[in-house]
Amino acid sequence: MPLTRKDAITTAHVLSEAMPYIQKFVGKTIIIKYGGNAMIDEKLQNSFARDIVMMKLIGINPIVVHGGGPQIGQLLNDLKIESHFINGMRVTDSKTMDVVEMVLGGAVNKQIVGLINNNGGQAIGLTGKDGQLLQAKKLRVEHKTPDMEAPEIIDIGHVGEVSSVNVKVLDMLVNSDIIPVIAPIGVGSDGASYNINADLVAGKVAEVMQAEKLILLTNIEGLMDKDGNILTGLTTHQVDELIADGTIYGGMLPKIDCALSAVKGGVTSAHIIDGRVEHSCLLEIFTDEGVGTLITNRN
Hints:
The protein is an alpha/beta fold. It is 40% helix and 23% strand.
């Protein structure tokens, strides 16, 4: 169906607004953590893939890091393997780790690669074990109650944190016009596999790549103040204050800590955006309004 004159003028205005952002970000690296509703809604899946392909076509270097907790939970349930969580983290024994690798490194990763390729991109899927991309170490989990003199160290199995990132692997792919799609599975010095939080992986990759932006897709409109208003632009100092006064709390804290760490580590800006909005990545990068919360180190 051809565009009406009004639609054509609107399109021209949108492209004109995007031009200075395109000029600013060409050649820069952007890390996108893909998860939430954007991963399970077919329309959102395709809009996300088109956003990633568009970035690459205009000269931006996107790197995708994805999660997959619900998919892991579903397969564990189908296999009659019970899930246990401590401090919001899945206890991961050897049997559970096999399922994690099957889901994240197999089904979910290849689905995302297929989406991007079907929309005109060239993506390659990786886990942290490929080329020793993500070196990991076992995550120490501490539990303390008021009546305890010292915290208890809890073993939650094959759950890890990133100790280093092999930048050479990512540079090789990015410089070959390939879009890397990373499953958050790390490898220990002993060759063991570790399940790592995808937000943390995205943040670490953004830091070592000195990315222009870290984008975290979520199922909320952005950070909100105590009155429910969206906070569109914040400095790291302001975020620290919002954590201290309890405005930011609970399940949002790990995501915010990841964004803060990345920006304090040299990433120009971090964005917590609403992945339930079609083309949310393009809207955040190429429009004045955006669709979430921007965090920078500038005062």
